Amino acid sequence: MAAKRILLGVTGGIAAYKSAELVRLLKKSGHEVRVVMTRGAEAFVTPLTFQALSGEPVRTSLLDPEAESGMGHIELAKWADQVVIAPASADFMARLAQGMADDLLTTLCCATEAPIAVAPAMNQAMWSNGRTQRNVDLLKADPQVSLWGPDQGAQACGDLGPGRMLEPAALHDLIAGKASGPLAGRRVVITAGPTREPIDPVRYISNHSSGKMGYALAAAARAAGAEVVLVSGPVSIDAPVGVEVRGVMTAQDMLEETERAVNEGCDLFVATAAVADYRPDTCAGDKIKKSNKSMSLSLVRNPDTLATIAARDDAPFTVGFAAETRDIEHYALDKLTRKKLNMIVANDVSAPGLGFNSDNNAVTVFWPEGHESIGPGSKTVLAQRLIALIADQLTEKAGPSGAC
Ligand code: CTP
């Protein structure tokens, strides 16, 4: 790809040290990089570090006559093809969202016409805070701004959750607009979350699925270089960065949307959704009134998305999930054969604190020639290992990317 002129804004956060590696990677790929640091950033890394890596003077102040006599701030704003703020602190995001221009970096963001990518990095509670999220919503609605991350996982302060800055290599690939990793060049379709089967206009049958495992897998597949479509039932999780989410409601919607996504091209299909096996045979047009002492619903079987996709003549490499409470290996292997799958991920949903609606899980993956147990661990870490394992098996069966 063509070399870009990248204006890297570094704000105050422990992840600032990782941006030094980002500068190194960008320079290695032939890009021009100029770094602007906020006062908070200087408390973590010295300007000299970025100057040495970028080969350019680092700007830290708006009202610096010497720096302004070189490349003035308006000139610098015009020079950039792409602005990247990494790490972006909660404070910086608030100021950017409000359109403030109270230091050099926010002034540059006001003055530039280049796209602005923001890579948040902060404590998970700060990220989840309502005021931060309101600023996130403002930035999401800003056509000049893209949010890259944050990632989930262990934080420098010891907390676990969303708020980690994306790794320098991932940011570098996003800037370059290229995908790298074991699933580069593959198209992946994943189902996630519960389905809702309407009883009447205000009631439905559903289950406790949070969608966390499917969303974590989608993020891991994207990080592994894949183009990812996530067909998702109703959940309250943000779309992973770079993943296309297609929302559905019922099992029938899920089948139709998945078939559409698979028809558009699919190398790997992973079904994590907790699809309702049955639906009411009719949905009442009006709210059902409590007129009788008891009532019964007549249920009919829902279509099986996983089995339908796996049965196609042009079936992609297909991975199912099996939630079991006993005889896990026996039932998982039975589903592997019966649904004609390439792999099945089995988990014991009776284990306390794991699986359904939890942040943690432990699974055993079976395929015709082997099996591997993963976890217990966070769904994020588990998803990364699962994707690596699936990518290995996919490459073994279909050959390297582009060969299938
Ligand atoms: N699945 C699906 N569509 C359905 C039901 C299930 O795509 N209508 C997928 C799930 O996403 C999961 C796998 O099938 O990947 C396992 O589903 P599960 O309901 O546990 O298995 P069943 O074969 O339905 O068996 P049982 O419910 O009897 O355990």
Automatic annotation (TrEMBL):
Region annotation (Phosphopantothenoylcysteine decarboxylase) ranges: 1-187
Record note on cofactor: Binds 1 FMN per subunit.
Ranges for domain Flavoprotein: 4-171
UniProt GO MF annotations: phosphopantothenate--cysteine ligase activity; phosphopantothenoylcysteine decarboxylase activity
Co-factor requirement: Mg(2+); FMN
Entry-linked Gene3D superfamilies: CoaB-like, Flavin prenyltransferase-like
Annotated binding of CTP, by residue: D277, K287, F321, K335, K339
Active-site residues (renumbered): C157
Domain DNA/pantothenate metabolism flavoprotein C-terminal residue range list: 183-392
HAMAP family to which the protein is assigned, alphabetical: CoaBC (MF_02225)
Protein name: Coenzyme A biosynthesis bifunctional protein CoaBC
Lineage: Bacteria, Pseudomonadati, Pseudomonadota, Gammaproteobacteria, Pseudomonadales
